[in-house]
Amino acid sequence: MRSTFGSHSAFLIVSLTVVLALAAPPVAAQDCPQLIGLWPYGPSWAVTAPGSHAYFGSGSLLKVAEASNPSAPLVVGSVALPEEAQDIVVTGGYAFVADGYSGLRVIDVSDPSVPTDVAFVDTPGFAWRIAVSGGYAYIAAREDGFYLIDVSEPTAPLEVGFVDVYVSDVAVSGSYLYVVGDDLSVIDISDPWAPVAVGYLELPGRAAGVAISDGYAYVATLEAGMWVIDVSDPSAPEVVGVVDTPGTALSVAASGSFAYVADDDLGLRAIDVSAPTTPMEVGFFDTAGSASNVEVSGGYVFVADGAEGIAVFLECGSSLFSDGFESGDTSAWTATVP
Length: 338
Fold this sequence. Notes:
four-stranded antiparallel sheet; five-stranded antiparallel sheet; globular; 1 helix
């Protein structure tokens, strides 16, 4: 099912409704974020760590590592991909990989030591970001459009929709799909075959990433930093805060009172969003590569740093020490292995 229209903002809402019915040494600043590990497996553009294992791109390989100690991961398996992974979602024993010009790859990771490529959908465009929910994969292919893939049977995925409009990232929260490109669109997908466009907000320029947390959408807007958007009412998204970043904001993740921005050549930026109307950068780490993708999981921040591999940080507010004695009598410290 293909649409070939070329307009943008208004068309995105209408069309989605129809179709669904990113070598200097690293430099740190402050104690947050705190680097705890470097994985020299570049180039890496994608990483996710939903449990005790991490899944990340390493050139044209998808690697799986036992990462209960993220400062010293143990690679336990790998599988070859046609292209370099751009984004990864792991759910239900499968890794769904946005694999650039090779589209969607489905990898069986039920046995992490033997990841197996079991299916693919060769989308014509460049698969850059992916979200998976309710038996569907939503693929953002930037100027190559937006793809909807039925993955209810992971070994037999099927493209069921396409929109010819710029989409850079997608996120699912509850029964809503948040889509960014030239704007933010909110789609009710409680019934995937009868989606309803419920909200729209014009952005200051093209966005590159979106994350949803606690009723807010955090949008990485390339040259315009990170925007905080109140989506507690999905039908009326409203900008409540903006913080500029010095680089190119390519990806964003959020957890608790902090958001983290992968800021390309200027590394990882940590933003305090405890007061959403006045977000404030509280620290940064100038990674050695090009911070292009960021994920938060289990108290850690994982950054895909291009040619330099993966950089792992403690979440802001976390500590390597369970007693909290970061100064003073070190004999009283009890080390907690991450």
